Amino acid sequence: MDIQTKTQHFSSPLYLESGRILEPYEIRYETYGKLDDDKRNVILICHALSGSHHAAGTYDGDRKAGWWDGLIGDGKAIDTSRYFVISSNVVGSCFGSTGPMSEKYPSEERYRLKFPVVTIKDMIRAQMHLLSSLGIYHLRAIVGGSMGGMQALQFAVDYPNLADDIISLAATYATRPWTIAFNKVAVEAIRRDSRFENGNYAIDAFVEDGLDGLAIGRIAGHISYLSPHSMDDKFSRNYVGNDGLFELFGRYEVERYMEYNTDNFSKTFDPLSYLYIVKAINTYNLARGYDSLYDAILRIKARVHLISFSSDYLFFPSEMEHIHKMMIRNGQSCSYSEIESDYGHDAFLVELHKFEDEIRDILD
Amino acid sequence: MDIQTKTQHFSSPLYLESGRILEPYEIRYETYGKLDDDKRNVILICHALSGSHHAAGTYDGDRKAGWWDGLIGDGKAIDTSRYFVISSNVVGSCFGSTGPMSEKYPSEERYRLKFPVVTIKDMIRAQMHLLSSLGIYHLRAIVGGSMGGMQALQFAVDYPNLADDIISLAATYATRPWTIAFNKVAVEAIRRDSRFENGNYAIDAFVEDGLDGLAIGRIAGHISYLSPHSMDDKFSRNYVGNDGLFELFGRYEVERYMEYNTDNFSKTFDPLSYLYIVKAINTYNLARGYDSLYDAILRIKARVHLISFSSDYLFFPSEMEHIHKMMIRNGQSCSYSEIESDYGHDAFLVELHKFEDEIRDILD
Fold first, then answer.
1. Catalytic status, residue A54
2. Element (H or E) spanning A345, and its range?
3. Does the pLDDT value for residue A35 go beyond 70?
């Protein structure tokens, strides 16, 4: 599989939904496979909150493959021997695309809290510019889970003629207060952490000791990505060590898991980017900019494929079902599968074997 | 209704499950109604994590009544014109019973992190001592929700001859990792808050500005007390103010609710007590000290009444059902009702009208 990692620079402005402008800006992206001469074998992958453009393959010297490596590759469900796959880092993130820690041209000052709020609509508009810059005007499919699934649906609504198929997993039509509340833990924990310094922290401030606020917020995140059942299976009521039950800070295995995962995360993810991406998720609402959700959905021309997971406690299956019912009532092309899973929201990253055939069939 | 608020001092030791000893200790408690001459008209009320002995009535000059005031009073479901109701503050809490901020006799130093871990079993053992000191050896009923429901069930197992009826709402037989994970947010947020000073904060340190760590942990708590549906009903996607959608720290109504409730809470509740009570909830397991859950449950002689709420996302109805099935299989007396509610775990405090008749019937 041919992997290319590149950065595209845009000197033309990105007009944001807020009315503000991002100019200039950059998009970091990765491609897998080969672009056909007619440039019509393209599949766009959209990443989730903590994801990046690195969706597949393994970098030299790296142990970990991209976040959807099981799905994307030669002969895999998203077959890079047939398709040219593009995966970009969203604006606002911290893996190479312009975000709050980027320098605000022409100064060398970083944006920090002066970075404009970006929305899911803004994220996909930036990706449209990336596609244009590559001379690509038609997509075979757009695929994403969670915030990536939001982007896929937003593409379907905002750019009805762009893609043949839209595959959205573990997403919704508008973020509910339940999810906003989980995000609120992170927002408050980051804001109130004195080391966050109201966004004025040094660039490498958290490399050694991650920001506690981000780690704490991420614990709430991990709760919402799992499910009661997946936690039972994974951790049961097992205790770490033998004699710690009556120690105040003795830990259950689920607690160790939360500490381990979140402490590491808080060393590698930028807290300002976290705040901005969480804001984009909170403000996600397919209906915004249209008369109603019905009006927004009605614009869709692509075949839409919705995949939810029975134990998803962040975006419930009923939310995807709502879109499906609306599209079917409108006579639009839409399939819906609720996959039985105990893995919760994380299933879209974990239980690939349960939906890879469906994706393969859609693309065939 | 005759309300009495008192403190009982115990100079004899409280032997804790950990092997440690609390000596001396005090229990703050409240009573409603009049004790019969034969002392057999007693109902014991057990409170939840953030609760206190103040379950009913309104103090002079106070606007807010006790936390179950709708249920307890003259002519109410728990009828104080017939019953003598006792409600005590659990050991470890911060409303008058001995807890981590109490002075460690004979020194005048406070326990702080040297306070021993207390468990649900310890909490009820202390209440047994309180009952003995009042000459009460038989209870008409024990009633509690959430951690109070855990105590009610633990009473049923540990002291099978004490009460005629056990009414446990919104509880479980053992705390699952899902709940421990929610509590973990609070544990980490408190521990890592620099103003917590590893438990060495001044006694009135948080009266003006609550401890951020406790407020943040409490946001996670409030998520688990509500449900996706109750949040939809309560907040929808409403925004606070008109023009804040594209402000990074502009807030949705659900966010304002979380801030308001948790900031106030963090000014009035002691963070060390919070850590200790959360530990008691985490370690709750009816089976501990017995061969198995089956063995523990088999000891119960009281009539047990389990009430769960369909939308409880903290302790799921299936957990109460599990106890019910086990007791029915054993030929023990047990009723189970799952109440339709959109209020989530909080329903046991909010939707009294949906279960007060059941409680009245049980007590009649």
1. no
2. none
3. yes
